[in-house]
Design brief:
The complex is a heterodimer of chains A (about 170) and B (about 350). Chain A has about 170 residues and is of the alpha/beta class. Chain A has one domain: 3-Layer(aba) Sandwich (Rossmann fold). Chain A is built from 6 helices and 7 strands, in the order E-H-E-H-E-E-H-H-E-E-E-H-H. Chain A has a 7-stranded mixed beta sheet with strand order 1-7-6-2-5-4-3. In chain B, strands 3-2-1-4-5 form a 5-stranded mixed beta sheet, sandwiched between helices. Chain B has a 5-stranded mixed beta sheet with strand order 8-7-6-9-10, sandwiched between helices. Classes of the chains: A alpha/beta (about 170), B alpha/beta (about 350).
Chain lengths: ~170, ~350
């Protein structure tokens, strides 16, 4: 919304590069919600973000474990609510306890539990593009101080080299 | 059954271990004698409860464990023909897994160990999977290579001796079992996805579609060292989904057969590389995906070709069970003695590795 760009990527590595650029805007206590189909690159995005935040251990899918925790410059909480179908179950993840001033929390499939999320987050929607490895990343701020960071988010389309050509495809 | 005390090493350690496993969606209890003889192994699965949600729901899992644990432990004791006071130790899986589920097993095991006045042993779930093969073959020669494949993990481990593990490689993104589940869910095959894919693949042509074999090369030396024994199933999963989106009429049996072949090919090739690189004489399989019939067949062929002994736990010991936990606990007692009663459950617990 609000004039934020759609960023086109042509590979999982490019998605990681965009995530690294987002990492530069991240502050302790942030919540980021990732949405998109199976295979859209949600875990790849988290890998790029975590690496840029100094996480050196491999970031793997949290689908089975539901919540993984990594320590870098900040603590990175990586959650996956793919297998949760009831809002009540979100309470079991202890989301409110994870959101503190030392960590950034990323939730895959978070759009499914939007009603249970605390206010103030960045939503990133990963859509499948034309080619098998093409993705379109849409950004939306939902309350909180993310709104103040919109000008910086607007510059993200420059995060991937040759992005301009990709963006014209859609 | 013999109830004589063993004196392996220097510390005499009791023989009869009751173990409790509640890390995910199976409530299990077992009594195992000297890590060799399974006196009883009871598994109460919650799969029917979870099936309609398409996965494991933590709140349901935790509640079901509470309801089922006492009858499951009682049944394990009755089957073993023992009372609690005759046991020598009580063990429980303390991680990794779902925190709410782990806590049920860990707290119960601690309480039982206090009531019966026997040592408590906290067991790593991944280590327990490594021990599943040793239940059948207690005199298995170490070192050996273990391919551990489940819904949450995919790794190649060099087991140098008991309690001494070297990680050769693990998945960089999705576990193999997760790829099975997600492809199955996309195709509407239900939960859990592994057995559904296994059954349907038999009717399909495994060479119908050429899906990628991630991080596999003709010559392993052409891969960077840190990728040689690593796995990556996220791209393969995406390749299958992309294919299905582009060609929705593709025969489902052919799709799952080709997908399964790509996963199995990747797992077996890397296991062979690990055997060749380490020079071990035996190789074994563990974890829920080790119940896959095609993986078992190809794994045996690979071991034959490489001239090493292969050990495949029966499918009932591949999926989560408490007998493997009891076996791991017995060996751990020999090495380290009991665990302190303040040992907590750790959802992110990893294998303790040698550097």
């Amino acid at each position: 919304m609000s004039g934020l760009p759609t960023v086109a990527t042509g590979s999982a590595d490019e998605t990681r590069q965009v995530a690294a650029a987002v990492a530069a805007l991240v502050r302790a206590g942030d919540l980021i919600v990732l949405c998109g189909d199976l295979g859209a690159g949600k875990t790849a995005f988290t890998q790029g973000l975590g690496l840029a935040l100094g996480v050196t251990t491999p970031i793997t899918s949290p689908t089975f474990t539901l919540a993984n925790r990594y320590v870098g410059d900040l603590v990175v909480n990586h959650l996956d609510v793919y297998r949760l179908t009831h809002i009540d179950e979100v309470n079991d993840l202890g989301l409110h306890e994870l959101l503190d001033d030392r960590s950034v929390t990323i939730i895959e499939w978070g759009d499914a539990i939007a009603g249970a999320l605390p206010g103030g987050y960045l939503e990133i929607r990963l859509l499948l593009g034309d080619g098998p490895d093409d993705r379109l990343l849409g950004f939306r701020t939902v309350g909180g101080d993310w709104v103040d960071r919109e000008p910086a988010l607007a510059l993200l389309s420059g995060a991937v080299p040759g992005d301009g050509s990709g963006a014209t495809r859609c | 059954m013999s109830q004589t005390r063993s004196t392996v090493g220097v510390t005499p350690v009791g023989d009869l271990v009751l173990a409790i496993e509640t890390s995910c969606d199976e409530t299990a209890a077992a009594v195992v004698d000297r890590a060799r003889v399974v006196r009883s192994s009871v598994v109460s699965s919650q799969v029917d409860q979870h099936a309609r949600f398409g996965g494991v729901v933590p709140e349901i899992a935790g509640r079901a464990h509470v309801e089922r644990l006492v009858p499951v432990v009682a049944e394990a004791l009755v089957e073993a023909g023992l009372s609690g006071h005759e046991l020598d130790a009580v063990a429980a899986t303390c991680g990794p897994g779902l925190i709410g589920s782990l806590l049920v097993g860990v707290s119960s095991a601690k309480a039982l160990s206090l009531v019966w006045d026997v040592p408590f042993v906290a067991v790593n779930h991944l280590e327990a999977h490594l021990y599943a093969a040793l239940l059948e073959e207690p005199d298995l020669e170490l070192p050996m290579v273990v391919l551990l494949v489940s819904g949450g993990h995919t790794m190649l481990v060099l087991m140098e001796e008991h309690g001494r593990y070297r990680l050769l490689g693990s998945t960089l993104d999705d576990a193999a079992g997760e790829a099975f589940d997600k492809v199955a869910r996309f195709l509407g095959l239900g939960y859990p996805g592994g057995p559904a894919v296994d059954a349907l693949a038999v009717e399909g042509d495994s060479s119908a579609f050429a899906y990628p074999r991630p991080l596999v090369r003709e010559n392993p030396a052409t891969l960077p060292e840190d990728r040689r024994f690593a796995f990556s199933f996220s791209g393969l999963k995406t390749a299958v989904l992309n294919h299905l989106r582009a060609d929705p009429d593709a025969a489902t049996a052919d799709v799952v057969a080709s997908f399964q072949e790509a996963v199995v090919d990747t797992l077996v090739t890397k296991a062979r590389w690990a055997v060749e690189a380490t020079g071990v004489g035996s190789v074994c399989l563990g974890g829920g995906v080790a119940a896959n019939s095609r993986l078992r067949e190809r794994f045996l062929d690979m071991a034959d070709g490489a001239g090493v002994r292969a050990f495949l736990p029966p499918p009932s010991m591949c999926t989560d069970n408490a007998a493997m936990v009891a076996a791991a606990a017995w060996w751990q007692l020999q090495r380290e003695g009991p665990s302190p009663l303040d040992t907590g459950a750790d959802p992110n617990l990893g294998l303790r590795l040698v550097p």
